[in-house]
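step: validate -> pass
step: tokenize input -> pass
step: predict -> running
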Amino acid sequence: MKWPTAKLGQIAPPERSEREFAPDEVVWHLNLDQIESQTGRVLEKKRAPASQGGVSTFAFDEGHVLYSKLRPYLNKVVRPDEPGIATSELVPLCPQPDILNADFLKFYLRSDRFVGFANQVVAGAKMPRMIMEKFWVHEMPLPAPREPKFSLPCNVEIFAIVREPSQDFMAVNIHSFKSTTSRPPDS
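step: predict -> pass
step: emit ->
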């Protein structure tokens, strides 16, 4: 069965958090060097007053998926677990909750399938960046219509499975998911 698709820009538009931090409020400042390639694991949470964020930053929260447009082959995608301020090299994606589960989006963006696409649509030799016009029109598979959301198990075993960089999310064994979860299509 082939899953339906939708353009990334329609189902996960770029939206900054409406959260405003007081200048002296100590918050998480997320930069690319704090994100582990391939896994999206946050290596360190640097905290500082919000006023130290600089001009090339934005506020994010737990509803976002943050995608690194710089050097897409490094495959840096984060689902934050708390609000903070991030470098503008990360794109704040806000998945439409009635259409797309944020964890599904996170794993899809880390998949070999998407990284292969991203590596073909870059500009710049030394510091290649994703061509965002191509990013927003990329057709992403969606869960089958009978299952409007892709749900992950409550336990964290799934994270151990997809942390292997050689594994494509689309190829993860179905037995790792609850029986009520459908499997992304093979392509």
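step: describe -> Confidence is low (pLDDT under 50) at residues 153-183.
step: cleanup -> pass
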